[in-house]
Amino acid sequence: MGGQPMFILSEDTERTRGDDAQSSNISAGKAVSESVRTTLGPRGMDKMLVSDDGDVVITNDGATILDEMDIEHPAAQMLVEVAETQEEEVGDGTTTASILAGELLSQAESLLEEDVHPTTIVEGYHEAAQIAQSTIDDAVIATDPDDDQLLQVAASSMTGKGTGDLAAEDLARTVVDAVSQVSTEDGVDRSAITVHTQVGATSSATELVEGVIIDEERLSEEMPRSVEDAQIAIVEDDLEIKEANVDAEYQVSNVDQLNAAIEAETGQLQEYAEALAATNADVVFVDGDIDDRLTADLVGHGLLVFEDVDSDDIESIRAATGASRVGSVDAIEDEDLGSAENVSVEKYGEEELIFVEGGAASKAVTVFARGSTDHVVDELERSLTDALDVVTAAVDAGGVVAGAGAIEIEIADRIRDEAAGIEGRKQLAVEAYADAVDVLPRTLAENTGMDPIDALVDLRAEHDSGATAGLISEGQTGIIADPIDHGVLDPAAVKHEAIESATEASTMIVRIDDVIASN
Ligand code: ADP
Ligand code: MG
Fold first, then answer.
1. Are 470 and 463 in contact (CB under 8 A)?
2. Burial of residue 458 (number of CB atoms within 10 Å: 0-12, 13-18, 19+)
3. pLDDT at 219 exceeding the cut of 60
4. How many Å apart are CA 313 and CA 110, to the nearest integer?
5. Choice from 159, 401, 501 to test ligand 1 binding pocket (greatest atom count within 8 A of CB)
6. Buried b (16+ CB within 10 A) or exposed e, 163-196
7. What is the pLDDT of residue 168?
8. Which ligand gives the minimal distance to the CA of 40?
9. Distance from Cα 320 to the centre of ligand 2, integer Å
10. Most CB within 10 Å of its CB: which of 50, 170, 203, 224?
């Protein structure tokens, strides 16, 4: 047997080991993070992403950029997951997390070159991350933010994002109102807030609707456009002739029989209309189809009826109005009905939108986002969604910290202090983590048009003198000032999650020394 090589992998398998595997993974991760760098902060730029079939997305949102890019490299894919996790968990801070992960990899590369063992790097990074987390806890300025602070959190998350012709501050009011409308002692019911977009007006027409907006058409134009104090029914059935009568067609042999069959059908249809009219419902949402011959009767009874309502809309009407889904019109009882102060049909261009507002319906709210083009409303929707998430996080998950790089300066400083007490080469890894965190204020400075090195030196000097110092963008440049005074606040949860997901991904990549790819 001796000397005979043994093949355990198929010939198509590509294998990269040791330093090569490490450096290829690290470069791929860095490249991903590099691609979102210029979008960070209020003066970050946007990216235009064009898909295979020519669809264009213009965005400043890290998660969206990475999602739209067709990233194949497996290590690069892990950085995309960092942004995805960040988006899912807290809804903001995706660029921050990706940039930090990339810089942690970059620092790890230098440590590997200095022969620091990967497991030492991993241990040091985890230790530094813990210091970072407790620094964030200690830096929380308000665990239970007031209205003004929430407005600032919302505005900070939208500054520099696509908000059409509207300033972030103006939109912030709508966002905070939406969140407070669905807040109870048990917390914020984020699922009760929807963003509904509609092109055709400038963004300043964006408003908060206390209720839900449904994209459906009335069964007939003769039905009412508006119903006050509406009682609402949801029917999950088809209002059509049931199968059995269809067979009648084949048994008809003379005109009398034909008339009888038609009468039987009409009778059955009338029963639907009568059954509906007998309930207290004024507005009826039907998930199935409604026979055309029934329309006139329903109009006659003064009902406002919708057919073919899709399941998402049914669900939001249910949640907002308290109506129960009922399997047939005969079974509707008073307690199945939901209510709303007003159900109205509004025309937007060619389309009709249904507003179910007020009363019980204000258990749910809708931010009705307007913009002049699809690209504007799409980016506005992303900005609003982020802002709704950060305000929710600030209310529900641990308060707010000073933004604009201040928290990062504090974190790096604390890690360096504590690194001094750590033995051996692990100390190098802990210090490297602090250097990596510096990338965030440095990038903010770059994107603001400041000299990054000077800015960092000045920031540290301010911080050492005991001040809270951040990079506040003003006009064409930035100034070093207290972010709290300038209302630049971020939720603590966003910072916690960024540290956690960036550390996880970078340490996972550093530990890999063998890539085995089957083709
Ligand atoms: P992310 O995807 O990480 O949220 P953003 O582009 O939203 O990226 O930038 C977030 C950073 O911008 C945070 O550090 C935040 O504190 C900072 N920031 C927000 N508003 C301002 C401002 N007016 N001046 C300086 N920094 C700001
Ligand atoms: Mg943001």
1. no
2. middle
3. yes
4. 54
5. 159
6. bbebebeebbebbbbbbebbbeeeebbbebbbbb
7. 76
8. 1
9. 29
10. 203
Ligand 2 centroid distance, CA of 84 (Å): 14
Paired tokens of 208: 């908060």
For residue 264, how many other CB atoms are within 10 A of its CB?
Answer: 14
In angstroms, the CA 228 to CA 221 distance is 18
Q: What is the pLDDT, as a whole number, of residue 252? A: 63
Residue 152 in contact with residue 489, Cβ under 8 Å?
yes
* Ligand 1 geometric centre to CA of 186 (Å): 29
Confidence of residue 30 (pLDDT cuts 50, 70, 90): confident
How does residue 425 score in pLDDT terms, banded at 50, 70 and 90? very high
199 pairs with which residues across the strands? 371
Which ranges constitute the DSSP H helices of 279-373?
295-300, 311-321
What's the CA gap between 497 and 94, in Å, rounded?
10
Top mutation candidate among 33, 82, 96, 103 for ligand 1, by most atoms within 8 Å of CB: 96
Query: In this predicted model, what pLDDT tens digit does every residue of 350-369 receive, in sequence order?
Result: 888 999 998 776 788 999 98
394-403 tens-digit pLDDT: 888 888 999 9
pLDDT, the chain, mean: 86
The pair of structure tokens assigned to 468 is 């809270």
8 Cβ contact list (under 8 Å, min separation 6): none
Residues with CB under 6 A from ligand 1: 39-42, 44, 62, 92-96, 156, 159, 403-404, 444, 471-473, 488, 490
pLDDT of residue 164: 66
Residue 27: the pLDDT is 83
CB 339 within 8 A of CB 232: yes
Q: Which helix H or strand E contains 285, and what residues bound it? A: strand 283-286
Nearest-atom index, ligand 1, CA of 61: 2
Structure tokens at 336: 């199945």
Residue nearest to atom 19 of ligand 1 (CA): 156
The structure tokens listed for 280 are 């207290």
Q: What is the pTM of this model?
A: 0.77
Comparing C-alpha atoms, which of 13, 121, 16, 8 is closest to residue 75? 16
Active site residues: 61, 94-95, 386
**Nearest atom within ligand 1 for CA of residue 487:** 23
Please tell me the distance between residue 268's alpha carbon and the centre of ligand 1 in angstroms: 63
